[in-house]
């Protein structure tokens, strides 16, 4: 291993090259997504080309909504390129399933909000606001659902 200064880059340069903030790099180091950097004699963090590639991979994973634990798993799999990629497929299938569940939940929430908005179609006094009346608990579906299931009102 040579210690040629041209081989190393500083954290700010790495951040610019990959399009992340310096604080993000430090966070990824803390979480174990990036290895601890080599320190120069004056204490600066220094990185190599492999760190640039790894950080780009992590950034792309995050852009695809992958949690840190899943990224750690994928990084370990990358270290064994001869392995079958079934585990990668399974991980992505699980992420897709979670996303579909979130989308369903968001659609349900949107429908409830649209219904709630319909309770007060025009400007009126606060005392007559249908939205606030709908959220008071006596007519709120979420309140009734949790009350029926748990036997106590939602707080």
Short recap of the structure:
The protein has 155 residues and is mainly α. It has helices at residues 11-18, 22-31, 49-63, 68-78, 86-117, 130-134, 141-150; strands at 9-10, 38-39, 45-47. It is built from seven helices and three strands, in the order βααββααααα.
Describe the structure.
By secondary structure, this protein is mostly helical. Among the domains are: 5-68, Orthogonal Bundle (Multidrug-efflux Transporter Regulator, Chain: A, Domain 2), CATH 1.10.1660; 121-155, no CATH class. The protein contains seven helices and three strands; from the N terminus they run βααββααααα. Strands 1-3-2 form a three-stranded antiparallel β-sheet. A hairpin with a 5-residue loop joins strand 2 (38-39) and strand 3 (45-47). The longest helix has 32 residues, at 86-117. It is elongated and about 70 Å long. It starts with 8 loop residues before the first strand and ends in a 5-residue tail after the last helix.
